[in-house]
Amino acid sequence: MTLTKPLGPLRLGVNIDHVATVRNARGSAYPDPIRAAKVAEAAGADGITAHLREDRRHISDADIEGLMAALTLPLNFEMAATAEMQAIALRHRPHAVCIVPEKREERTTEGGLEVAREENRLAHFIAPLREVGCRVSIFIAADARQIEAAARIGAEVIELHTGAYCDLHAEGRFDERDAELARLGEMAGYAHSLGLEVHAGHGLTYETVERVAAFPEVMELNIGHFLIGEAIFRGLDPAIREMRRLMDAARA
Ligand SMILES: CC(=O)[C@@H](O)[C@H](O)COP(=O)(O)O
Ligand SMILES: NCC(=O)COP(=O)(O)O
């Protein structure tokens, strides 16, 4: 059943990975992702997202340590379902752990996690994370099979991958974009009906955010790459404030 009113306020999680990408390009100490997280908080972010990739191409282990020590906002820690990452999450106990698929050679997270085929392994993988109090989120495509599997393994949250929708928009393939958007909306409703909290993210921009923010079941958007790019032109604080404004307007 489609809701007519939003379930609640829409949270903004600011992903700071690509502040670290710029820092790492020169092996310097700046720009500092923790400083970016503090600016994000002042600009109205509700949480910070950081993805510790297995190849450490942006966020480092020391960044996660620093964020855990410095942040007053909740940290959404994105990671692959590996023993190494599980040990790091269990040590730090972030507010949320989002399990994402990772391919070493990919440019960015290309798709959602294959939960249905790995149900047993993932159920065992997330159990200890839940036991120490982390909210477990699963990053998946808008696909009923994957959503059902995420519910069965005991995840509390799913994050719908909005990358395909954003790419289709950027390529001007508007019929396909609208079909993908409709799928995202329908699957947000379906996930909610199964008791899952619904988040969304990847590739969102000022042009694409409003239609996702308007889905009543979506409770959080995680946005990074576009905001860090936009910060070059208008500053990080105003870039985040504008995103917040668009999200709130779409929600109203
Ligand atoms: C899972 C996700 O969507 C983000 O963490 C994103 O992947 C970060 O940027 P990269 O994919 O460029 O590492
Ligand atoms: N999980 C999505 C995320 O954290 C941000 O993705 P992007 O905006 O950097 O593409």
Automatic annotation (TrEMBL):
1-deoxy-D-xylulose 5-phosphate binds at residues 17-18, 53, 58, 108. GO terms for cellular component: cytosol. One of its GO terms (biological process) is pyridoxine biosynthetic process. The keyword Transmembrane helix does not apply. It catalyses: 3-amino-2-oxopropyl phosphate + 1-deoxy-D-xylulose 5-phosphate = pyridoxine 5'-phosphate + phosphate + 2 H2O + H(+). The record marks 159 as: Transition state stabilizer. Keywords: Cytoplasm, Pyridoxine biosynthesis, Transferase. The active site is at 51 (proton acceptor), 78 (proton acceptor), 202 (proton donor). One of its GO terms (molecular function) is pyridoxine 5'-phosphate synthase activity. Pathway: Cofactor biosynthesis; pyridoxine 5'-phosphate biosynthesis; pyridoxine 5'-phosphate from D-erythrose 4-phosphate: step 5/5. InterPro entries: Aldolase_TIM (IPR013785), PyrdxlP_synth_PdxJ (IPR004569), Pyridoxine-5'_phos_synth (IPR036130). Catalyzes the complicated ring closure reaction between the two acyclic compounds 1-deoxy-D-xylulose-5-phosphate (DXP) and 3-amino-2-oxopropyl phosphate (1-amino-acetone-3-phosphate or AAP) to form pyridoxine 5'-phosphate (PNP) and inorganic phosphate. This is Pyridoxine 5'-phosphate synthase. It comes from Frigidibacter mobilis. The lineage of its organism: Bacteria, Pseudomonadati, Pseudomonadota, Alphaproteobacteria, Rhodobacterales. The gene is pdxJ.
